[in-house]
Design a protein that fits this description.
mainly alpha, about 5% strand, two-stranded antiparallel ribbon
Length: about 90
């Protein structure tokens, strides 16, 4: 019985099928240790987020075109999500 393609709940009758599916997803997905931020890259992303947030606020107050709001807002948001969700390597 499969609930989601990435989380297989096995029953004794389909254990071989579930084992093959688990191996497929292990090969498909990269290990979580492959993604990390160094202190320098995290700092640079944070500075880009601060500058983009400042430019977003500047564009908002001056009724700039919508593409500028989308550009600066998306850049600031994505940088903050990356800094917040990707683990940092202490070394």
């Amino acid at each position: 019985m499969v609930l989601f393609p990435f989380a297989c709940v096995t029953v004794t009758s389909c254990s071989h099928k579930a084992n093959l599916q688990t191996k497929f997803w292990e090969r498909l997905l990269l290990p979580i240790d492959a993604f990390y931020l160094t202190p320098l890259s995290a700092t640079l992303l944070f500075v880009v987020a601060i500058v983009s947030g400042y430019r977003y606020r500047w564009a908002w107050k001056r009724d700039a075109p919508n593409w500028q709001l989308w550009l600066y807002g998306s850049l600031a948001g994505s940088c903050l999500l990356i800094v917040g969700l990707v683990p940092m390597n202490p070394g």
